[in-house]
Design goal:
The protein has 13 helices and two strands. The protein is mainly alpha-helical.
């Protein structure tokens, strides 16, 4: 039994160490939730089924996180790209989202526009634009040396487009940028839905969403699902 996991569960659920330790041990021995709640009250401090299920589910999540973490570490290490700093970040990741964000730049992927741009030798140009060391930098001027008809870069426009593709992928795969975008989305984004003109009768069961707007952070799941069903039914 992982003491780090049990300590975290105790903190999150506000339970006593002996309660969490006992439930985790009983679950590992194959006991069911109803059995633990009914016949092991003296070991769990009389925890009910809801509390025991919370412990069970959180323990499963943390163990799945460990398995995924181990796979990611092995994959990146096999690529020869696992630095000590990256290892520490992966080990410290406490949610699957954070873990997958860290893995994203190293995840095997199909050939993207950024991949093609790198094959054309445009990553150094992207690095120059990214650094922004010279406020007076002329993008078209610095792109000129990267023209290479043999690689398919025949104009400054093509060179800069390739560099932008590389930078766009770099930002989209940056864990901190992704976390900040999620934060902004939850804080500022709004759901909006309007009926398609002429679909009022066909979509009458969705009339509550004919002109609906609500902050993402406040919208309950049942309203979001209803809105998505209306979208799927093209009303």
């Amino acid at each position: 039994m992982n003491e780090t996991h049990t300590e975290r569960i105790r903190t999150e659920l506000g339970l006593q160490p002996a309660q969490v330790d006992a439930v985790c041990r009983l679950l590992d021995e194959g006991a069911t939730v109803p059995f633990i709640a009914r016949y092991r009250k003296e070991m769990t401090g009389s925890l009910d089924e809801v509390a025991i299920m919370q412990i069970r589910d959180r323990l499963a999540q943390l163990r799945e996180l460990d398995r995924r973490r181990e796979t990611i570490l092995k994959t990146i290490e096999s690529q020869g790209k696992l630095t000590e700093d990256l290892r520490k970040k992966i080990v410290a990741a406490d949610t699957m989202t954070k873990l997958e964000d860290l893995y994203l730049p190293y995840k095997p992927k199909r050939r993207t526009r950024a991949t093609i741009a790198r094959e054309k030798g445009l990553e150094p140009l992207a690095d120059l634009l990214w650094a922004q060391e010279d406020p007076a930098l002329d993008p078209e001027g610095v792109a000129q040396p990267y023209l290479d008809p043999e690689k398919g870069v025949t104009s400054v426009v093509e060179a800069l487009a390739g560099a932008r593709d590389i930078l766009a992928e770099r930002v989209s795969e940056d864990p901190e940028a992704r976390a900040e975008l999620r934060r902004l989305y939850l804080a500022e984004a709004r759901f909006r839905a309007q009926v398609i003109p002429g679909k009022e009768e066909a979509g009458s069961k969705f009339r509550d969403y004919f002109d609906w707007e609500e902050p993402v952070s406040q919208a309950p799941s049942h309203r979001i699902l209803a809105m998505r069903r209306g979208e799927k039914e093209l009303v």
